[in-house]
Design a protein that fits this description.
Helices cover 27% and strands 15% of the residues. By secondary structure, it is an alpha+beta fold. The chain has one domain: Glutaredoxin, CATH 3.40.30. A hairpin with a 5-residue loop joins strand 3 and strand 4.
Length: 154
């Protein structure tokens, strides 16, 4: 099994095989629009704009498991992010990231890193070969990840 085995659905319901991102570094983030960390969307968008042409894809996955901070639909979360933070990177369907109903993608990410997702805005960095290389805690500011991203992009 690899990261490319998964086909999550975008906020509009369209399935996207992660194999389409082969050769790109990925920053996968569980998000929430009513969280104290929600302003991280600004820095995530900045990473997207800075590195998209060099091979980074930022992928956002709304989650309502922590404090009920993503109460709306995936489409509402996507619209909120676009309107308030200018987000243009892909936003996916709401999902659970831990526990018995964890989405298989997030189960794979946590198993690969030995990480436990403790809150919204946990971040996983994946290299261009699909290897999960690092987990970052929710409090890690996205721009602090630049050195790690630069290593993957060469």
């Amino acid at each position: 099994m690899s990261i490319y085995s998964f086909s999550p659905r975008k906020a509009n319901g369209e399935a996207v095989n992660l194999g389409a991102y082969e050769g790109k570094a990925l920053l996968i983030v569980n998000t929430a629009s009513e969280c104290g960390l929600t302003p991280q969307f600004k820095e995530l968008q900045e990473l997207h704009e800075t590195y998209k042409d060099r091979g980074l894809a930022v992928l956002g996955f709304p989650c309502n498991q922590f404090g009920g901070q993503e109460p709306g639909t995936a489409a509402e979360a996507e619209a909120f992010c676009s309107l308030n933070y200018g987000v243009t990177f892909p936003m996916f369907e709401k999902l659970d990231v831990k526990g018995p109903d964890a989405d298989p993608l997030f189960a794979y990410l946590t198993e690969s890193t030995g990480a436990e997702i403790t809150w919204n805005f946990a971040k996983f960095l994946v290299d261009g070969r699909g290897k999960v290389v690092k987990h970052f805690e929710p409090t890690a500011k996205p721009l602090e990840l630049k050195p790690e991203i630069e290593k993957l992009l060469g």
